[in-house]
Amino acid sequence: MTQSTQDYPGERLGLPREGSGSIGHLGRRVGALFIDYGAAYLISGFFGWDPLAILALFAAIQIVFLPTLQGSPGHRLFGLRLVRLDGAWVGLWRPVIRTALLIVVIPAVIWDADHRGLHDKAAGTVLLRA
Prior knowledge:
Blueprint: H1 26-44, H2 51-69, H3 73-77, E1 80-84, H4 93-104, H5 106-109, H6 118-123, E2 125-129
């Protein structure tokens, strides 16, 4: 029985070790999350700081910007982009699935060896450095 190993996250996906096109690592992902959630939090002030409004705005930011800019504003500020595994456009339904699972939190914190959360695996996407 052969065991497949990889030297770095994304190697088995054919991605480079570092630089453009490599896997977006934890620091960039968390930074992007803070930017996006912070924006939703600030905008929700117009709605009385309602926690559901914050989540709805966060979801709207994700669903609108992922297919249009290949990433949320936070992703783009941190030099990340979201693509399908084959490099194609993510389409319209993948951001909806990915965002719904991201809001649940648990799927986003369970990763594989390529640093892809279950929300990315379910949507068939990968977050790469731009």
